[in-house]
Amino acid sequence: MEYRLQWSQLLSQARSRRESSGEAKPARTVPSGERRTPFEQDYDRIVFSPPFRRLAKKTQVHPMASNDHIHNRLTHSIEVASVARSFARRAAELISRSEQLSPEQLTSIDWIVQSACLIHDIGNPPFGHAGEEVIRTWAKKHWDYFFPSSLAGRWTDQVRTEIMADWEFFEGNAQGFRIAARADNPQAGYLRLTYATLGSVVKYPWAATDEKTRSKRKHNFHSLERDLFADAFQTLGLVRDDGSFCRHPLSFLTEAADDICYRILDLEDAVAMHIFDKKRVHQLMLDITGNQENHWMGLAQLRGQAINQLVGEFWKTFENDYEQIMRGEREADLKSSLPSECKEHLARVSEMYEEIFGHRKKIVTELGAYHVLGRILKALLKTVESIGNASRYDQLHFLSKNCAELAWDKAYVEANLNQPHRWWLGQVMDFVSGMTDNYATRLSRELDGLAFES
Length: 454
What we know:
By secondary structure, the chain is mostly helical. Helices cover 60% and strands 1% of the residues. Strand 1 (19-20) and strand 2 (23-24) form a beta hairpin. Helix 13 runs antiparallel to helix 15 (299-320) and helix 13 packs across helix 17 (340-367). The protein is globular and about 70 Å long. It starts with 6 loop residues before the first helix and ends in a 7-residue tail after the last helix. 43% of the residues are buried.
């Protein structure tokens, strides 16, 4: 029988098990007056969560821009969710033609896709994509901090390989899945969202250790979340006969909304930052709309027209390839199958991006992101080494105590003192990726001069 995805599974309301340190937590009692569906609860959990709120102070493209008009990760995520709503409603109509779904199930698609868009950047570190590269580069040069000789024997060769892959190919998408899926650390902002929402944000359904990661430089889960990811995708019916994972159909729409927003809106930011001449971007927007008669429109109006045009083009691709997607055969994003004229316009955008990133790299270099994040990583990893060598909290090195209480708090460290070294490295990843640009800069200054070398 032909393999085919089932919407009865794809809209799963299941969540990860409530476990911490291997001990099951009792389920919370749902108030009798609860009127929200699990997917509406997902949306609310995200909106009121600290990791989502911190996106307001995380770089989208231009780090720590003085112009308040410039996008940050939060405004970008909200705009992506808005565009995705248009996709979701079209998807519900398309699905209803061939599937017997209830009105509530069809309505849930709207909430699922919007929630997926809100969290699509939630795992990104400070300083934008430059922050990801800094973490990878720093890790590759400082493995002795991750595997100190004083803790030799605390990990197997396989665990070491997995840890190295998680850090060497550090990926905001994988960190985002960790934050969105886990339940065992409210302090880090773990959200424990439904499997349907989690599946709808996954673009690269493989781990850091997978061969695809080396060629694509992308993956969607760390080794610590391997079992959780497998459970979610098994429940969603996204596991092929050979054991590999395929993409959730709604993930293509989440990705398309992101592709549209950052390509159009980042150009508008570049005009505000005086990187591009307004006329140049205005003409590109006109070309994307395909209607030169709209030359009288302002840039903001044209931007809306351009987004609407791209939504239509991306949707045609999704609709045309729907059967292939439902067979779990498509992996590539929708933009790779757009009409040639549309691809040409997006290629022009990509060329302009080279100029944007050239300007951005200069700023990031001036900020010293490598030294900022490197200093914080060094302090936290020395603290984790001290924790690994202590059987009681009062045995921690005094500098490590200060750093531990700064990053977490005394009670949390005491409660988790005996956790494996690998677990603590995950806590370091949570803390570093969760920082805002401003906080990372300030914390680095505070740590400057402290002797974490010894």
